[in-house]
């Protein structure tokens, strides 16, 4: 069974490498023809994933139709680009198993990956792959556990078997809402954790922020139909711990730069920045209290300073936990 990966960034390349190590044929699509040609020739993605060789069973192309012939397609593209990609290439992609690998909420529609997939490609089998992982760890074959969420549990079991390897362990759930929101919301909290550390507020403050952030994640996710056990699993709590405590996290590094008042590389995708604004809009419509997400959204838009954000959060009324 051939597998295709759409998106030759760090995570897409890492997934292609990890799956191909077992002799699996993997097609990797790069949007830029020059990048595709370079990857196919040099067998390395030095800019995004230095020091990792592409196995011979990985073929790279800028022609999406050739990669889309695979039965399983992993969508390793940024959340804010996913809808446009699916609509543009609907004819080639519809009817396949389409697995979103982005962790975020579409700013234009307020929807997560599986909803975006289902609307753009109604004949597809939508799923999401998420959980605590860094591209470098996956590419180097370090043990990693992820959540695979698919509303059709029988198809989910097939995908679980096809995508698991001896060191990439997938746990299955049918709770796509919980898996999507866990992965999306933890990025917002990770930005806030980075702000805390960048501003020099200390580890105790970060622990408090993570705890209250996890409460916010549950508050919104449960209101939208997620299951509590999903948020307590890999795609929620597990990913939250990883991204709030490691400088490998782009969201954490972005928040750290905000906290220190430093510039951040604009070419680096930070899913939590757009997600924070989408979450604030969604929570407001639902009447759900999301103070940390609101502060992150305001910081991203430069509508508030770090000092003002901290003061606002600390001034909130005392209450029961």
Give helix % range: 40-55%
Would you tell me the overall average pLDDT? 95
Assembly state: single chain
Low-pLDDT sequence parts = none
Strand content: 5-15%
Descriptive overview:
- The protein has helices spanning 10-20, 33-42, 64-67, 79-88, 90-93, 113-120, 135-139, 153-163, 176-198, 203-223, 228-231, 234-245, 250-260, 271-286, 291-300, 306-314, and strands at residues 3-6, 26-29, 44-45, 49-53, 58-61, 72-75, 97-100, 125-130, 144-150, 168-173.
- Helix 6 (113-120) links the parallel strand 7 (97-100) and strand 8.
- With 321 residues, the chain is an alpha/beta fold.
- The termini are far apart.
- The longest helix is centred in the middle third of the chain and has 23 residues, at 176-198.
- The strands form two sheets. Strands 5-2-1-6-7-8-9-10 form an eight-stranded mixed sheet, sandwiched between helices. It has a two-stranded antiparallel ribbon with strand order 3-4.
- The chain is built from 16 helices and ten strands.
- It is globular, with a radius of gyration of 19 Å.
- The active site is at 186 (proton acceptor).
- Pfam families: NAD_Gly3P_dh_C, NAD_Gly3P_dh_N.
- Catalyzes the reduction of the glycolytic intermediate dihydroxyacetone phosphate (DHAP) to sn-glycerol 3-phosphate (G3P), the key precursor for phospholipid synthesis.
């Amino acid at each position: 069974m051939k597998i295709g990966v759409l998106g030759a960034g760090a995570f897409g390349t890492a997934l292609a490498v990890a799956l191909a190590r077992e002799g699996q044929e993997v097609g990797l699509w790069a949007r830029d023809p020059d990048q595709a040609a370079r990857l196919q020739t040099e067998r390395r993605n030095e800019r995004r994933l230095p020091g990792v060789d592409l196995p011979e069973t990985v073929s790279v192309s800028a022609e999406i139709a050739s990669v889309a012939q695979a039965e399983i397609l992993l969508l390793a593209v940024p959340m804010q680009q996913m809808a446009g990609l699916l609509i543009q290439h609907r004819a080639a992609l519809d009817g396949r198993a389409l697995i979103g690998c982005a962790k975020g909420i579409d700013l234009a529609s307020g929807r997560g990956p599986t909803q975006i997939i289902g609307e753009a490609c109604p004949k597809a089998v939508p799923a999401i792959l998420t959980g605590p992982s860094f591209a470098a760890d996956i590419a180097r074959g370090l043990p990693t556990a992820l959540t695979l969420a698919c509303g059709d549990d029988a198809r989910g079991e097939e995908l679980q078997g096809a995508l698991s390897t001896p060191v990439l362990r997938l746990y299955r759930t049918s709770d796509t809402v919980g898996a999507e929101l866990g992965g999306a919301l933890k990025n917002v909290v990770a930005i806030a954790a980075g702000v805390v550390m960048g501003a020099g507020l200390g580890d105790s403050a970060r622990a408090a922020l993570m705890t209250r952030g996890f409460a916010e994640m549950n508050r919104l996710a449960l209101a939208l139909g997620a299951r509590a056990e999903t948020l307590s699993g890999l795609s929620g709590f597990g990913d939250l711990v990883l991204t709030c405590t490691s400088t490998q996290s782009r969201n954490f590094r972005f928040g750290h730069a905000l906290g220190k008042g430093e510039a951040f590389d604009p070419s680096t995708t930070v899913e939590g920045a757009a997600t924070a604004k989408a979450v604030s809009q969604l929570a407001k419509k639902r009447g759900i209290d999301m103070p940390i997400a609101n502060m992150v959204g305001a910081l991203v838009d430069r509508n508030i300073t770090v000092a003002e954000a901290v003061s606002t959060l600390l001034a909130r009324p005392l209450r029961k936990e």
